[in-house]
User: Fold this.
Amino acid sequence: MRRGPLGLLIALILLMGLVSFAVGAEVDKETGLTIAPGFDEVKQTCTVCHSAMLITQNKADRDGWLEMIRWMQSKQGLWDLEPQLENTILDYLEANYGPSAGSRRAPLDVQFN
Assistant:
């Protein structure tokens, strides 16, 4: 495996492919995004300003994704989204990049003396 940023990128892309294969989801080879209803809208709207990796590396519920959109609008210059487009994007993000059960290990039971 190559070392450095390119090697890491290749490893991440391969990992995303394995994860999507394991759960049966089809992944867009260009972006790494899950192909599902709303994919086209997310690709056309979100990847204009940033890499799709900013989506794939995050997990949030609908309110969390909406908060990120509002932050981008107030701090990063994201334009106002038509309500129907915003709902389509939120539906997609919630369904495909929502919090997953068991995504974190249980807290350690540590006893301090």
